[in-house]
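User: quick one - fold this with 2-phosphoglycolic acid bound?
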Amino acid sequence: MMHATLRQLRAFEAVARLLSFSRAAEELRISQPAVSKQIRLLQEQVGLPLLEQLGKKVFLTEAGRELYATCADWLGTWGRFEQTIANLKGLKQGRLKVAAVTTTKYFMPRILGPFCARYPGIDIALEVVNRDRLLDRLAGNRDDLYVMGVPPEGMETESEPFMDNPLIVLAPATHPLVGRERIPFAELARETFLVREQGSGTRMTMERVFQERETPLQIKMELGSNEAIKQAVAGGLGLALLSRSTLSSDPDQRELAELDVEGFPILRAWYLVRPKGKQLSVVAATFLEFLREHVQLLVRGQ
Ligand code: PGA
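Assistant: Sure. Structure tokens for the protein plus 2-phosphoglycolic acid:
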């Protein structure tokens, strides 16, 4: 049985890949005689020459080529193992700070639940605030990751869309426009609307939608929560533009209806945002991976 050590294999792999003892020594940060010694010991174990040196050139023998192929597999597997261990160590005392806009409360807990179950050692702080307050937190680098519907403009950030976020027109189920197809947007000008507070991303998007279509927006009432708006719409106080995510807790609501208005739903996305160049902690990177994986399931309703 051969007794090759990881050190010997690393030295051999580096020399075989770089075809140079001196460059291998540099890469491994050990002396050149130390590299030669590891390879001599390995050759003794294998019982055949692994390398040939002609002048300054290094060549692999047939046994060397076989070993090199084996080493590449082996060191790759070992590298992944080391990574897993590093992650596990990092995750043990991990703390994840996520700030998310108000409307994400309909799905963020459904993502965090399975995440916490898979990584019980992670301690999560989820801050739920409206868009303006979230931008203040982002500017102050207070959290690891941020979730919002409209990525910030004029701020150095990296944004990654991860899930659909359609904006819909909601009416009470008894409204005369319910059931009509392709309602022209201009007809909405006759309606009164219930809106979120200033600083909300939904409010900002809604105002933009009316401005872009040069349609006046008649505001009936301002309410500080999506749930309050849904109740007010159901109560016949007016219509609303909200993210379809707000219906996900109860998709069959009988008192509310989605209107078929031209140009709607407005297709948007939920974004994961972080300051540009921010080095993600192991925990944050793990969450990002989990989100990418898990959202597919969420979208399919599993
Ligand atoms: P909001 O944000 O919850 O502050 O309205 C929603 C969004 O960013 O789309």
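One thing worth noting: Residues 133 and 199 are 8 Å apart (CA to CA).
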